[in-house]
Amino acid sequence: MTSAHSGRGDISRSLELMWRGRERSTRGPKPGLTLERIVEAAVELADRDGIAALSMRNVAAALGVGTMSLYRYVPGKSELLDLMLDHVEAPAADLAEWRGREWRDTLQFIGQGTYRLYLRHPWLLQVNQARPLLGPNALTNFEFALSALDGLGLTSREKVGLITTLVAYVSGLARQHVLTAQANEDAELSQEEFWAAQGPVMELAQASGAYPRVFALEDDTFAEGSVEYGLDFGLALLLDGFATFVAAKRGS
Amino acid sequence: MTSAHSGRGDISRSLELMWRGRERSTRGPKPGLTLERIVEAAVELADRDGIAALSMRNVAAALGVGTMSLYRYVPGKSELLDLMLDHVEAPAADLAEWRGREWRDTLQFIGQGTYRLYLRHPWLLQVNQARPLLGPNALTNFEFALSALDGLGLTSREKVGLITTLVAYVSGLARQHVLTAQANEDAELSQEEFWAAQGPVMELAQASGAYPRVFALEDDTFAEGSVEYGLDFGLALLLDGFATFVAAKRGS
DNA sequence: CCACTACCGCGTACGCCGTACCCATTTATT
DNA sequence: AATAAATGGGTACGGCGTACGCGGTAGTGG
């Protein structure tokens, strides 16, 4: 029953932690933990048990330390989320191969990769990325996306507009998909029970005759596998739109 | 620091409340509240103070009643969220006018309307619509969207695919936009301070030379007004893609 | 060798949250 | 008048993030 904020705490602390890590001073006991270990444990916990289970107490327990020990490494939960975001955004290793490929292939790759990222870390969709901090990984990904649009004669605004549109679509779709899938899995209520619960009122709705088109939909419309089909379907439409735009710019 | 779940509680209770309201039995004291009033107060509270401030205690206080009194009307917070969702989705009154218009205009209207909805109720983006319950308003909107695609020779799957794609894009973009705007407004940190905080590390990043394209972007790329521009820009691209698809179907 | 100092681990406590439980009160039926 | 049902809401429990502060530890300077 909890969402989460990122970018709410001490921004510069988060950024320092992302870019520089912590410079150790020689005095005092050696730290028993590392920032890295904490972030990894937190991501693993969120992946497995969902964002609602991501409490400082649970992260600490997973690491076998006291709750407040975490605060020696991270200023607060907000900054921990910032770090988790940058952590999972680590770009694929083989980005270099993509130099010189067709822009359309590259954008499709980016879209699919982003989608997979959300599938792997569904809690991303519940994190309020109010102010996406520009961590090293975010910046690398952004640079890569921009490189895909080299040499097409686009302005900065246009490039960013295309990338924004792509990411907006993919994340929006992932949101719909992942949240539904996740509800079907780990809830106490199965998908069948859910539809069974909706059944009675739906029959009323159908009988009312106010929604003829909704109830005229084919049975297989929401069938299994419609979602993977969904990404490629919408992505192709969107990239068709991009192609029209790029062609117009080239022609002018 | 809280997200929120919807569709987690007793589904059938939520649905009953949405479709039928509560049938009053004659015995006992007259209720001092109505479901309607509670939902409206909750929406107003969420609009003004954000989802984090939406606690049962705060809603009750806004209504001048005891916290637990709310539970006489709503089974729990989860169901209250379900009701809030359906409440704000109330369709525009003038949907009937749109019969027979061009599909492209209608879809654009739907996209812009959805976008405005998110601007008006930013907390929508933080609500985990895991299982969007089909309330009367949701169903009416869906029916309207389907009606826009009448007569184009599309299958059920294709119609739903187009609508899904449109909504995914718009909600994804709204998410980026609203969360950023909201952070800029009501946080203790202004936008200038935010960028000032990013400044030092950004200079380091620039000096590293690893992100040439990012730092070669024009200064006005992220300027004010880029966001409204953003919706229409992306929407046009997407609808171009739709047009290509529809034309291909027609031609075949 | 020893004080000093900086740092680590973390126990306790406070004020939030959702809500289970229960009881006094009010009202319509019998 | 007695009964049954519904309302209002107080109290309490177990969760949360985290401020504060204390005892222990490891390098440093005398």
TrEMBL record, chains A, B:
Positions in coiled-coil regions: none
Source organism, top-level taxon: Bacteria
Residues annotated to bind DNA: 55-74
Keyword DNA-binding belongs to the record: yes
HTH tetR-type domain sequence ranges: 32-92
Keywords: DNA-binding, Transcription, Transcription regulation
Pfam families linked: TetR_C_1, TetR_N
Entry annotated with the keyword Plastid: no
Full protein name: TetR/AcrR family transcriptional regulator
